[in-house]
Design brief:
mainly alpha, 236 residues, globular
């Protein structure tokens, strides 16, 4: 849960930009988000149809501490990717950060989607994808229609993220399931993140930070999709 940070109320933020610059920034942000989702889907399809999927699932199934290593590596990679995507030094570095994060998400999704496709039925992943899209569009519409600034959620999301990571670590260590209630809470948590970052797109990002903005939104969408897949699997 390592996403982009922003500088609030500075004279270079999108809220102080011209109408044309603001529209250009928003368009670029969501085009890059769509591109990230497309690249994620392509990489995921390739990984799920390769021997890597079975190897990864077996590795995690045979060693309960393997998930600690995977999550640790993912958090480090997320931090590096976010730093690159937020860099003002090089546009190429920003795109490398976004691509690195998308690849990392695709890899960490492999075990979940492998299990979902084999034991949850053929409809679990498509249904979770549709639900993710509906919720994302709903949260986006709320922000764009109300123009409300949800930056007040920042502290709540920060502490909630640490609490969630702590619970996940404990569940892995002691080998117990957090259950569907936790999954529903995490769906609400992901929706709150979407509200937060969408409002940042309207109010707080700098005009040239469309790559960092798309990474933050993509991270929130991936988090939402992760727990919706689990919910639909549990209903099977």
């Amino acid at each position: 849960m390592s996403y982009a940070d922003n500088t609030y109320e500075n004279p270079y933020s999108v809220a102080h930009a011209s109408v044309d610059d603001r529209a250009d920034f928003i368009t670029k942000t969501y085009l890059h988000l769509a591109g990230a989702v497309g690249v994620f889907a392509g990489i995921e399809f390739a990984l799920l149809n390769s021997p890597f999927a079975d190897m990864f699932v077996n590795m995690l199934g045979n060693n309960r501490f393997a998930w600690f290593m995977v999550l640790g590596v993912f958090m480090v990679v997320s931090w590096v990717a976010n730093s690159w995507a937020s860099s003002n030094a090089s546009v190429g570095m920003q795109y490398m950060g976004l691509l690195l994060y998308v690849v990392a998400e695709a890899v960490i999704f492999v075990p979940l989607l492998t299990i979902a496709s084999r034991f949850g039925g053929s409809s679990v992943i498509p249904m979770a994808g549709i639900a993710t899209g509906v919720l994302f569009l709903s949260m986006t519409a709320i922000v764009f229609i109300t123009r409300k600034d949800f930056s007040f959620l920042r502290s709540i999301l920060m502490f909630g993220g640490f609490a969630a990571l702590g619970l996940i670590a404990v569940s892995i260590f002691f080998q117990f399931s957090l259950g569907p209630i936790f999954a529903y809470l995490m769906v609400a948590f992901a929706c709150a993140y979407i509200l937060y970052y969408t409002s940042n797109v309207l109010h707080h990002y700098q005009v040239g930070q469309h790559v960092a903005a798309s990474l933050a939104l993509f991270a929130s969408v991936a988090l939402l999709f992760w727990y919706l897949v689990q919910i639909f699997m549990s209903r099977r």
